[in-house]
Amino acid sequence: MNTLTLHLAHLEHNYKVLRKQLQPKTQMVAVVKAQAYGSATLPFVRRLVQLGVDALAVAYTEEGVELREAGIDLPILVFYPQADTLEALLDAHLEPCLYSRSLVNRFKVLLQQKQQQHYPVHIKYNTGLQRVGFNTTDTAWILEAMELECFQLRSVYSHLAASEAPRPCSLCDDQIMQFEKLKTAYQKACDPPPKFHLLNSSGVFNYPEHQNEMVRCGIALHGFANRPEWDALLKPIARLSTQICQLHHVQKGSYVGYDHGWQAPQDSVIATLPLGHADGIGRHYGHGRGSVEINGQRALIVGNVCMDMLMVNVTNIACKEGDKVLFFGGQSTAADFAKSANSISYELLTGLGSRIQKVIEE
Ligand SMILES: *Cc1c(COP(=O)(O)O)cnc(C)c1O
């Protein structure tokens, strides 16, 4: 059985490491979008609530609604609410991050229709990522809109495009400078001023002096912060394991897998594993890029990854059918495994398929 084991004691460790980087007053928003980065949303969120996290954030309204339905009553920010989900967002008392004039206008009409007052909202600025957000030139318009009775402006934030890049990083410095100017404008215009936040996981380590009143952490809770020296402080929570389902002895010159993806350079032993691209181990791991751990040794993935299975070369590894196989969480981490195929921990973890059983370990 393919198993993703989630070690909640490591979540607690990571939470505490992050908290240690923060001033006592700085709030932590735990980012739990995409099923808490492909882990197990509810056990993960419940542990964070126990640990005292200040708020949660998801990408889309539907994710926040699921958390409410499970009884989670912390503030929940929705980073990328889509206009046609605003009513559901309101019904679940989720807090939208508003990133355009049309979204502010749509939400205003809805709040007024439903006779809502002082509804908590957040304003997202684009300071250089060019993804979503108001531009800095929109501030006068936003300030005027936020004076309406229906809104309560809780926070103003932006997102760095390369928070893990070695300092000094001129593009990050430019984003930070723009954000500082925004802060001054809001501090002058609003009484009380909203909270400000700029940093994700890597940012907490790289720019601690810019933690402001809040930070937004996702991947670091899972044990990664995009640089070896920060990763060393954290503990990965996930381990992906399976077992050998069949061994084949193949002769020199024979081909293995679809499209004859690998040809045995010598008489070889091939182990077939019951995970494939439908499980999130994509074809980019094939052809010797990805490797797994079997009985303490590394076995390279050979040829093309299939939908439900893949093959590894175990010619020089003592092993038998049924032996345990680790994709990550042993000698190598999810970040290492992802890197072997030019990917990142985020993509690997959030892409793991629903056929993988999740097991919570305390
Ligand atoms: C996903 C996301 C985060 C979390 O980033 P990590 O690198 O996982 O800490 C923070 N802020 C925003 C706006 C995001 O979309």
List the helices and strands and how they pair.
Layout: E1 3-7, H1 8-21, E2 27-31, H2 33-38, H3 41-51, E3 55-58, H4 61-69, E4 76-78, H5 86-91, E5 95-98, H6 101-113, E6 119-124, H7 139-146, E7 151-157, H8 170-189, E8 195-197, H9 201-206, E9 214-217, H10 228-231, E10 238-243, E11 246-250, E12 255-256, E13 262-263, E14 268-273, E15 291-294, E16 297-302, E17 310-313, E18 324-328, H11 334-340, H12 345-351, E19 357-361
Parallel strand pairs: 1-19, 2-3, 2-9, 3-4, 4-5, 5-6, 6-7, 7-8
Antiparallel strand pairs: 1-10, 10-18, 11-14, 12-13, 14-17, 15-16, 15-18, 16-17
Bound molecules: pyridoxal-5'-phosphate.
> Regarding CATH, which class of the largest domain?
Alpha Beta
Tell me the major beta sheet.
9 strands, mixed
User: What molecules are bound to this protein?
Assistant: pyridoxal-5'-phosphate
Helix amount, in percent?
25-40%
Count of strand segments: 19
Which strand order does the major sheet show? 11-14-17-16-15-18-10-1-19
CATH superfamily of the largest domain: Alanine racemase
- Cα-atom radius of gyration: 24 Å
Give descriptors for this structure.
about 350 residues; alpha/beta; TIM Barrel; Lyase, Ornithine Decarboxylase, Chain A, domain 1; 2 domains; nine-stranded mixed sheet; eight-stranded parallel sheet; binds pyridoxal-5'-phosphate
Account of the 3D structure:
This protein has 362 residues and is of the alpha/beta class. It folds into 2 domains: 8-224, TIM Barrel (Alpha-Beta Barrel); 238-361, Lyase, Ornithine Decarboxylase, Chain A, domain 1 (Beta Barrel), CATH 2.40.37. Helix content is 31%, strand content 24%. The strands form 3 sheets. Strands 11-14-17-16-15-18-10-1-19 form a 9-stranded mixed beta sheet. An 8-stranded parallel beta sheet has the order 8-7-6-5-4-3-2-9. Strands 12-13 form a two-stranded antiparallel ribbon. β5, α6 (101-113) and β6 (119-124) form a beta-alpha-beta unit. α1 packs across α3 and α11 packs across α12. The longest helix has 20 residues, at 170-189. The radius of gyration is 24 Å and the shape is elongated. The chain binds pyridoxal-5'-phosphate (PLP). The site of pyridoxal-5'-phosphate has 11 residues, from β9.
